[in-house]
């Protein structure tokens, strides 16, 4: 680390791991000071449980800290869903991605929570936003938080010390065996081992139903967590002893185990000092606290949620049950594929079903939400253009009515956004689109389009729109947010799209969880399939797999994204069948038109299709009430809430 050359002046930041991927704990204090002296920011990736014992990154001078909260009570689930975290100082708060909740006061002067600094976000800043984040991992963040609430600082300290003690006992035992070299660097829960034949030891461990990480032919790392037992250690000792009897047990080593963390890196500062983390340490206390919180939420248990294209479907119990099954929850994302044959079969079946529904040739299940799907799909398009030598194609045409994630995602992909307007009926202005496409024909990369439109209209000219883009060398990216009005009736592939993401947490029944988790798999036509994302640890690519593969890289940390929640959508599709899925779309459209008809004599319905109908959503115009009665859309939304209805989408796509 000391050898980093900052003299070129082009280094903007450094990312370090604490603890490292092979278990090592390094003191980054001087390194951070040197980086800061050169104007370089430092990002530290870390582990929450380790920080119970280690000096926190903020005290080492890190500017930004990132990591996963999975370890706080959330199952591995073959890769997710898990909540990540990003922490930084007040200095950088306006550059942070995603939502931030701040404290304010309500109309009665009581403390209230509300969204803060929204002007950073995509629904306002669009292509100038700090990120394209829309769906997050809110439900998983709450699970991790409640794990910390239940255990409290002392309980977490006990867990961390036990995990560290298991790693320490393992290191002591290996030294007694004599033929194994244990790394000399400090460690928390992962021990690096040098041996004669790493693959032979890993194979022996495999036969004892233990997976070890082989770093190279002579190096293995072994990690421990709160599920590890003393019996597991005894099995490992026998494996490393070549199957021969061992003269000691893990329990007998306890008196010899010492803290492996240097005193200078031990945590001295307090943590989780808020009273919430020091009150609810029994199951019934936590249960009552959770019930108190959830009783403040409006959910499908109470009434409908009329949030436009995001309208949730009923989350049937049968669909949700597999999420709790150990066969799905307890698999590590990097476990050998032969240990996850059930998952693999489900992936293949789900991929085939989604291809049939959408008219595409291949699917990637890696993106974790709609915004991630947009980013992945646009990166696939970019990789396709580059493969043809069209490195210069970087223009993305986006209607002004598009959801804010569209321009934000395009900006993240390094594309230049060219906006096009809509006509008085809410349709894309085709002549304006044609002029934009022809003016940029040598640089055109893609069009991002939502169908039905965000105005709640089936655009008659969608096939012509796709043809214009294709004739000028571009690809059509369809935002799948409104698939509720397509499934079984038409499809992106039939319409002419080249790539489309699906919001499985909208159209295919995964609960939205207060904003997440979500899944945003992308479907593509055959010519784009080779470029679907893969993973450096476990190869993924498209389902079905294309004949040739040139993956663009990796979109999510886990090979299959949030694999644990895919059984929800798979079960929903399998139980509904072709007719049931089609009926669901028809009923959504019928309900929207019923409501539009009931309201049309009292509120102007802004946009309709050529036959006078709407799609699965519609927009009512309340602007007149501001002039006649001083009433804003927010007032109507709050009044609906008084009657038990969640407030509908407001101020978008019409200001």
TrEMBL record:
Under Pfam families, the record lists: GcvP2_C, GDC-P
> What terms describe the molecular function in GO for this protein?
glycine binding; glycine dehydrogenase (decarboxylating) activity; pyridoxal phosphate binding
Kindly indicate whether the keyword Protein transport belongs to this entry: no
Q: Does the keyword Mitochondrion apply?
A: yes
Which UniProt keywords are given for this protein, alphabetically ordered? Mitochondrion, Oxidoreductase, Pyridoxal phosphate, Transit peptide
Give its localization. Mitochondrion
Q: Which cofactor does it need?
A: pyridoxal 5'-phosphate
Q: Taking every annotated instance into account, which residue ranges of this chain make up the domain Glycine dehydrogenase C-terminal? A: 584-654
Gene3D superfamilies cross-referenced by the UniProt entry: Aspartate Aminotransferase, domain 1 (3.90.1150.10), Type I PLP-dependent aspartate aminotransferase-like (Major domain) (3.40.640.10)
Give residues where N6-(pyridoxal phosphate)lysine occurs.
506
Recorded catalytic reaction(s): these are:
N(6)-[(R)-lipoyl]-L-lysyl-[glycine-cleavage complex H protein] + glycine + H(+) = N(6)-[(R)-S(8)-aminomethyldihydrolipoyl]-L-lysyl-[glycine-cleavage complex H protein] + CO2
This protein's GO CC annotations? apoplast; chloroplast envelope; glycine cleavage complex; mitochondrion
Subunit architecture: Homodimer. The glycine cleavage system is composed of four proteins: P, T, L and H.
Instruction: Give the PANTHER family listed for this entry.
Output: GLYCINE DEHYDROGENASE (DECARBOXYLATING), MITOCHONDRIAL, GLYCINE DEHYDROGENASE, DECARBOXYLATING
By sequence similarity, the record places it as follows: Belongs to the GcvP family.
Protein name (record): Glycine cleavage system P protein
* Organism field: Gossypium lobatum
């Amino acid at each position: 680390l000391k050898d980093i050359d900052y003299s070129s002046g082009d280094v903007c930041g450094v990312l370090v791991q604490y603890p490292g991927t092979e278990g090592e704990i390094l003191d980054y204090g001087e390194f951070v000071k040197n980086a800061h002296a050169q104007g370089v920011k430092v990002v530290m990736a870390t582990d929450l449980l380790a920080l119970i014992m280690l000096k926190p990154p903020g005290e080492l001078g890190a500017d930004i800290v990132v990591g996963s909260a999975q370890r706080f009570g959330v199952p591995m689930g073959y890769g997710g869903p898990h909540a990540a975290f990003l922490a930084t100082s007040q200095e950088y708060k306006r550059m942070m991605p995603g939502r931030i909740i701040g404290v304010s006061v309500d109309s009665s002067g009581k403390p209230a929570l509300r969204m803060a600094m929204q002007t950073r976000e995509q629904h306002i800043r669009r292509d100038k936003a700090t990120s394209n984040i829309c769906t997050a991992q809110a439900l998983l963040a709450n699970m991790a938080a409640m794990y910390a609430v239940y255990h409290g600082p002392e309980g977490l300290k006990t867990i961390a010390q036990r995990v560290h003690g298991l790693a320490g006992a393992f290191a002591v035992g290996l030294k007694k065996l004599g033929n194994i070299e244990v790394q000399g660097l400090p460690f928390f829960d992962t021990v690096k081992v040098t041996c004669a034949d790493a693959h032979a030891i890993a194979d022996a461990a495999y036969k004892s139903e233990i997976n070890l990480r082989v770093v190279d032919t002579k190096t293995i790392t072994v990690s421990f967590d709160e599920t590890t037992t003393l019996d597991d250690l005894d099995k490992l000792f026998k494996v490393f002893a070549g199957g021969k009897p061992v003269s000691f047990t893990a329990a007998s080593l306890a008196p010899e185990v010492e803290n492996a963390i240097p005193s200078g890196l031990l945590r001295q500062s307090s943590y989780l000092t808020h009273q919430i983390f020091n009150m609810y340490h029994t199951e019934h206390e936590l249960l009552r606290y959770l019930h108190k919180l959830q009783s403040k939420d409006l959910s499908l248990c109470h009434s409908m949620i009329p949030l436009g294209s995001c309208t949730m479907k009923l989350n049937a119990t049968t669909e949700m049950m597999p999420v709790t099954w150990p066969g799905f929850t307890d698999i590590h994302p990097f476990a050998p594929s032969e240990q996850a044959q059930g998952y693999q079969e489900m992936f293949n079946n789900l991929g085939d079903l989604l291809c049939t529904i959408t008219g595409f040739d291949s699917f990637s299940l890696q993106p974790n939400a709609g915004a991630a799907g947009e980013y992945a799909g646009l990166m696939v398009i970019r990789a396709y253009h580059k493969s043809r030598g069209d490195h210069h194609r970087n223009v993305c045409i986006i209607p002004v009515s598009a959801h804010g994630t569209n321009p934000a995602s395009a900006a993240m992909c390094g594309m230049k956004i060219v906006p096009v307007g809509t006509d008085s009926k809410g349709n894309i202005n085709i002549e304006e689109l044609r002029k934009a496409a022809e003016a940029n024909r040598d640089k055109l990369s893609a069009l991002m389009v939502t169908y039905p439109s965000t105005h709640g209209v089936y655009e008659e000219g969608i096939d012509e729109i796709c043809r214009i883009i294709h004739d000028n060398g571009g690809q059509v990216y369809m935002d799948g947010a409104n698939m509720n009005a397509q499934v079984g009736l038409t499809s992106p592939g039939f319409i002419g799209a080249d790539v489309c993401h699906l919001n499985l947490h909208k159209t295919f029944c995964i609960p939205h969880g207060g904003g997440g988790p979500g899944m945003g798999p992308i479907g593509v036509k055959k010519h784009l399939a080779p470029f679907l994302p893969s993973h450096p640890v476990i190869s993924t690519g498209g389902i079905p797999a294309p004949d040739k593969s040139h993956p663009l890289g990796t979109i999510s940390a886990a090979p299959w994204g949030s694999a644990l929640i895919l059984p929800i959508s798979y079960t929903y599709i399998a139980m509904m069948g072709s007719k049931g899925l089609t009926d669901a779309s028809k009923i959504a459209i019928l309900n929207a038109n019923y409501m539009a008809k009931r309201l049309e004599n009292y509120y102007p319905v802004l946009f309709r299709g050529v036959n006078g109908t709407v799609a699965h959503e519609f927009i009512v115009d309340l602007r007149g009430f501001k002039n006649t009665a001083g009433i804003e859309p927010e007032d109507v939304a709050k009044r609906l809430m008084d009657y038990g209805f969640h407030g509908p989408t407001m101020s978008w796509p019409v200001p």
